[in-house]
């Protein structure tokens, strides 16, 4: 029987994690290992200065392991402590909030977890849904209201093929983003990463004692070049699949770098 590991960055009780379980439960033996609390934005962070505690969680009818750490911690604990056999697939998601562009690839805990699995040669999928209200990304996702039906069916189809056929050579993971109002007839685009999704800003405020503190914020980029994930999801309302590689080496003539020496 095929082995599947599921994780996320929204926490073990997130509605998106339940949807991820539903999307692959018929494809093999599923193990769920996820952060015990919300861990969005931690990227591929790993806990190396403190011990990690793991507890059992009953999540809407299935058992899961709750890790008091990051999504990457959860993958490591799942692979090297909980699962007895190497999984055939790691699914990270469904994240509440789109994960598109180079901004999110380096900051998303959802993608960070998938990258960790991919680093061991395990096929990985990161799945996210678009939100219209940016505040939804930071709310309590245990009761998040969203119809995951399209995402469940779509990820099921892709996961089934990845398990049976593997990923193409040079591809370590698939980053899937599903627009808010997607249907089974929504167009699918194979995309590349856009350069930006956030127009970063910093807001300075004063506490009651007059001392400054700061909020990092910013508006979303809602359009980009044709063929990018931002264009597909934000502008055209298409489902985006971006093949990603762990190898971030720039594809250039290395002689250009020697010229800088």
How would you sum up this structure in a few lines?
The chain is of the alpha/beta class and 261 residues long. The protein has helices at residues 15-24, 71-82, 101-107, 109-118, 149-165, 229-235, 255-258, and strands spanning 3-7, 29-35, 54-59, 62-67, 89-96, 124-129, 173-178, 188-190, 198-206, 212-220, 239-244.
Describe the structure.
- The protein has one domain: Survival protein SurE-like phosphatase/nucleotidase (Stationary-phase Survival Protein Sure Homolog, Chain: A).
- Helix 1 (15-24) crosses helix 5 (149-165) and helix 2 (71-82) packs parallel to helix 4 (109-118).
- The model has no long low-confidence stretch (mean pLDDT 93).
- The longest helix has 17 residues, at 149-165.
- The chain has helices at 15-24, 71-82, 101-107, 109-118, 149-165, 229-235, 255-258, and strands at 3-7, 29-35, 54-59, 62-67, 89-96, 124-129, 173-178, 188-190, 198-206, 212-220, 239-244.
- The strands form two sheets. The chain has a nine-stranded mixed sheet, with helices on both faces. Strands 9-10 form a two-stranded antiparallel sheet.
- Strand 3 (54-59) and strand 4 (62-67) form a beta hairpin.
- 26% of the residues lie in helices and 27% in strands.
